[in-house]
Design goal:
84 residues; 17% strand; binds zinc ion
């Protein structure tokens, strides 16, 4: 199970989304037509994979148990308390 993380941009709390650039269809087509570009494309896609916030798509998700994560969480809870 993935660790819960917090987004420093929008404050989203939860699991980050794994985003892979490119397309699986292009990858399959390249593999079928030409093996070498298929390998290169697969390696590029794997290398460019990153975790992003599912809400704002920023690459600013940090672990909740990190010092900044804890601080953000505490600030969020304060806001919630004020709103209620
Ligand atoms: Zn976000």
């Amino acid at each position: 199970m993935a660790k819960e993380m917090i987004c420093t941009s929008c404050g989203y709390k939860g699991k980050p989304k794994s985003i892979t650039k490119g397309s699986i269809l292009v990858e399959i087509a390249l593999w079928l037509l030409l093996i070498v570009p298929g390998v290169i494309y697969s390696v590029w896609r794997m290398a460019s994979r990153y975790t992003a916030c599912p809400q704002c798509k920023s690459q600013t998700m940090i672990p909740l148990d990190s010092p900044i994560g804890k601080k953000l969480l505490a600030e969020q809870e304060q806001v919630v308390t004020k709103e209620n």
